[in-house]
Amino acid sequence: MHAHPIQPTITFFAAVTTYFGYGLLMFFGYVRDFCGRRFKKVTSLPPKGYAPLVSDFEEFYTRRLYHRIHDCWNRPIASCPAAWIDVMERTPLEYGKPLKLTGKIRKCYNLGSYNYLGFGDPNSPTKNDVFRALDQYSVSTTSNRNDIGTTTLHKELEKVVARFVRKEDAMVFGMGFGTNSTGIPSLIGKGGLIISDSNNHSSIVVGARSSNSAIRVFAHNDPEDLEAVVRQAIIEGQPGTRRPWTKILIIVEGIYSMEGEFCPLAEIVAVKKKYGCYLYVDEAHSIGAVGLSGRGICEHAKVNPSDVDILMGTFTKSFGAVGGYLASSKEVVSYLRTVSPGHVYSASISPPACQQVISAMKIIMGEDGTDIGQTKLSSLRENSNFFRRRMMEMGCHVLGDWDSPVVPVMLYNPAKIPAFSRECYARNLAVVVVGFPASPLLLSRTRFCISAAHTKKDLEDALKKIEEVCEVVGIKYGTATSLPTSSYLLEE
After folding, report:
1. N or C: at which end does the chain have fewer Cβ atoms within 10 angstroms?
2. Region 127-364: CATH code
3. What are the CA-CA distances from residue 180 to residues 189, 284, 301, 306, 324 (Å)?
4. Which residues contact 62 (CB under 8 A, 6 or more apart)?
C-alpha cells in the first residue's frame, strides 16, 4: 500500500476548545504573574542589573504551561531502547516542585523510540561485532578525523554506506544533527538560494540559516508550489542586484517525522531537473526503514539515487547507533572533507558505533549470509500498517502514509497532551506526545514509532490499552476528509 490515505482535519469544536484551553491557561498565568510581582513573590525575574537570558514569553510559557506537564517528557530510561524498556519512576507532579526519583522501575511497552529495525535491542545480531570493536579500538578516538580520529572502521563504514545508498562516496559525522547543521553551510553560501520544505527538521533550518545564503520556503509536500517558488526565484534573481543565483539547492526529507509522510520524490526530482537545481534529501527516518531492501525513499519512490545530488542520513534510527552521513559523488565528498566543520573540528564517530552500523547494513543487505535483514524489514512494514489501520478503525485522526513506521495521532486540545501521556504511562505504555512549539498550536499529537522488534501479540495488547485511553481522553474524533497536515495548509 503506497497511496496517500485521506488525512483528517481538525473539527470546528476541537479548534475552538483548543484555542479556549490555551487562552485560559495563559490568562490565569498572567494573572498569577501580575499578583506575584505586585506582592513581590515572583522569583523568576533576573537579578537586578542583569538582562533576561530568554524572551519574556519563552520564560512565561516555560513556567506557566510547560512546567505544569513536564513530567510527560522527563521520565528517565534505564535500559536499551528495545520493545520493552525500564522507566525510572518519579514522584507525582506538584506544580512548582521538582520531580524526584522514587527508586522504583516500571517496565513499559516502548512505542516512542526510533529503533525501527530492532538493532538497538540487547540481543541485537550486531552485538558480538560491536564488543570486539570496543576491545580493539576503545570507546572514542578522542580526536577529529583530520588528526588521529580516523580508524580502519571509519574508512570501511564510509565504503559500506556508499554501497548501501548507491552513491560513489560518503563521509560520516559524529552527530546526526551536526550532519545537517555543518554539512549544508559547506555546500552553499552567499549568492546561493536554499528552497526548503515548510516542515523540514530544525537541523536543516539551522544549517540553512548558517549558510549565509538566501532561503525560500515551499508548501509542505507540494511539487507545484515548489515549481512556482523556483520559477519566481530564477526570474527575480538575487535581491538588489538581480544577478543569477550561484546555485539553487532544494532540501526535503524522506519521511517527515512529525507527519509520518513520505515526500513525493519523483515529482520533486522532475522539478529539480527542469530548472537545473540541486537536490538534498534528508533520510534520517527513511534510510533502513522503507523500500523493499531498506534503501530508503529513493527505492520506495522508484527514483534513481543518481538523480539526487546529496543523500543525507543518520545512524540513530534504523541502525541503532549514533552519527550521520552525507553521500554524493567523489568530487563533492572530497570537497566536504576539507571544508565541513563537522568533519574537520568535531570528534569522530565512536569506533564501536561504526561497527554497529557496518554490521547492521551488511545484515540488511544480506551480506551476513542470513535473511535476518529481510525478515526485519518485512516485520516493520507489517507492524506499521497493522498499527496504523487499527488506530484509524478506532476513529482517531491518524496522519501519514502506509508503510511509514511513524504514526502520528492527533490530540489537538492542550489538556489532552498530559492526559494521554499519563493514562498510557499508568497502563505501562511509553509514548511520545508533542505540543506547541514543537507542533503548530492547534495540531498537538502523540507520535507512535513502530519497530520490527514489536511482536503482533504485544501490539494487539498495546492497542487494546490505547483504545481505553482514547475513550477516557476523548480523541476519537471520527472520520474527516481534508488534508491539513501542516500549519501552512491549516492557515490556507
Report:
1. C
2. 3.40.640.10
3. 14, 10, 23, 20, 9
4. 54
Amino acid 480: pLDDT: 44
Note the pLDDT tens digit of each residue in 272-331: 999 999 999 999 999 999 999 999 999 999 999 999 999 999 999 999 999 999 999 999
Domain covering 12-110+374-491, topology: Aspartate Aminotransferase, domain 1 (3.90.1150)
d(CA 318, CA 450): 11
Domain chopping of the chain, boundaries: 12-110+374-491, 127-364
Q: How far apart are the C-alpha atoms of 429 and 85, rounded to whole Å?
A: 10
